[in-house]
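Q: I have 459 residues here and want to know how they pack in 3D. Can you give me a structure?
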Amino acid sequence: MESSSATPSRLTTVQWLICVIAAIGFAFDIYELLVLPLVLEPAIKQLGGFAVGTDEYINWARVLFFVPAFVGGLFGLVGGYLTDRLGRRRVLTWSILLYAFSALAAGFSTSLGWLLFFRCTTFAGVCVEFVAAVAWLAELFTDPKQRERVLGYTQAFSSVGGLLVTGAFYVAGLIAQSLPAIHRGHDIWRYTLISGVIPALPLISIRPFLPESPAWQEKKARGTLKRPSFLELFQPQFRRTTIVTTLIFACSYGAAFGAIQQLPPIVRGMPEVIQATKDLEKEEKKKATERVVATVQSWQEIGGLAGRFLLAFLAVRIVSRRALLRLFQVPGLFIVPLVFFFPAVNDLQLLKWGIFAAGLFTVAQFSFWGNYLPRIYPLHLRGTGESFAANVGGRILGTSAAAITLTIAGSKWLASILPDATPAMKFAYTSGGVALAVYAIGLAASFWLPEPPAGEIAD
């Protein structure tokens, strides 16, 4: 445990404003990412006319999960490089503009192709924003403990974004008929996508006027700022760090996208939910089912919020980063798969508690990376290094777990093993297996995770 003898100075008014804007930014990032599982099924049904479980549905669901993440990861790599070349604040501003207007446009999509396009541009903005924001915060707060707290607690608001999008989906279901029609309809999924532009308004208004990273600006002004390079990430000094962080980052995202984010179709197909809504009219049945989905999703988001705050609390008290990460990996290895193998199949009430725990242990790991990565790369390579782990590991490799889950769940091989299982049950069992695999790989890889130097971050 770290000593607490030195007390960091109080935050100034400008620093508080920076923290508030950063927290909104992180919340909006996750808001945009987590909206897809809620709107995926109704969007594919309306724009494509494909029913859940059909080959066409599986293919489009796989594409909408993976392609935007892949495209976002590629743009995120470029964005991380530009963060080191052009500055943290400038890249932040443009990334916000990109995904704010993309979120608005996605709600007016007239085909699955256009929805895919705007999800790609939304992901691109989100992937760039995360990397630039973490580097920016790490360099604005130089006191080690203060920096850990700021990074930990501002990232915790990412899970507030998850709660907000769940709430937006729920509210949209209640007031959809009173909102202006879009393409002659009042579809809940469209209003939910469009709502993503609302949190961006204060970011667009204020963030461009906040200070640039002093350390980056000073080196740039003096002409001593080194040029970033992706090849440098694989030089002996950084090779192990780059490979291990990318692998574990991928496992963290793999558990989320390959298991937890598959929850909506699982809940919709639970016997308990079907039985409770069987006597309702079509529209009422649809709304009632979506309210159950939103409720269960909110339990997961509350668990994620608790996990992020727990991580922020422990980050300044536990010196070993390996030990800190394993506090969430070890229990998650057992709990997350079990949630999908058992309560996700037949017990809605127990599923709520289980998905709370799954969210806590999984989502906390996302905050871990925001605290860890700025400490292991020097200033000129910070955005580039962060972007490789976050985008190649998390966005590209990690989110591909969703495609793996969707492929296995819809395969003839699984159908032959579970001939009597419903599509929802197949999703649940596959999600549990994917969660077990990525948690095991991530825990094993943590034994090679480098410990960052104590105290000040490298310049």
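Q: Anything worth noting?
A: The CA atoms of residues 164 and 394 lie 23 Å apart. The chain has one domain: 13-209+237-448.
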